[in-house]
Amino acid sequence: MDWLEPLSQTFPARALILSPTLYLLVNAAHIMAIGVLFGAILSLDLRILGLARMLPLAAAATYLSRLAATGLGLAMLTGLGLFSVRPGEYAANPAFLAKLALIALGLINILAVHLTPAWRATTRGAEPTKVLRVGAAISILIWGGAIIAGRWIGFI
């Protein structure tokens, strides 16, 4: 993974390497972004699965999807910063690779669900279909797995 090493010489990477405080803040921001991402996804998926029926799904779906997208963007930005500190090490870490694979699966699941007529109907007030419920259950497993893989990185 030598081709990734120049990333560790960029200005943002050097700043993170040289400042433990900056690294701490970016790491904390990454954790908060993941909390926003997973919190929104889990809340939406649980609502699709039938919990909190008093919460209108059409409004929740729109709001929580946008919130999750914001969390994803922030997690990717801060994650790239953290990755840049030791790119070769991370790229060779099986847990990091598993995390990336699970994130990719999660994004594919989101696209698959959001491109269905059932999703569009749900955002207009229809009850979620069985396909959406299966997608929600899969989503919880995938994103939960990504979090576990992310935590596992530091232990390998």
UniProtKB/TrEMBL annotation:
Domain DUF6644 positions: 27-155
Highest taxon listed in the record's lineage: Bacteria
Family annotation (InterPro entries): DUF6644
Entry keyword set: Membrane, Transmembrane, Transmembrane helix
Keyword set includes Transmembrane helix: yes
Alphabetized Pfam families for the sequence: DUF6644 (PF20349)
Transmembrane stretches, start-end: 20-42, 63-84, 96-119, 131-153
Keyword Transmembrane: yes
Full protein name: DUF6644 domain-containing protein
Organism placement in taxonomy: Bacteria, Pseudomonadati, Pseudomonadota, Alphaproteobacteria, Hyphomicrobiales
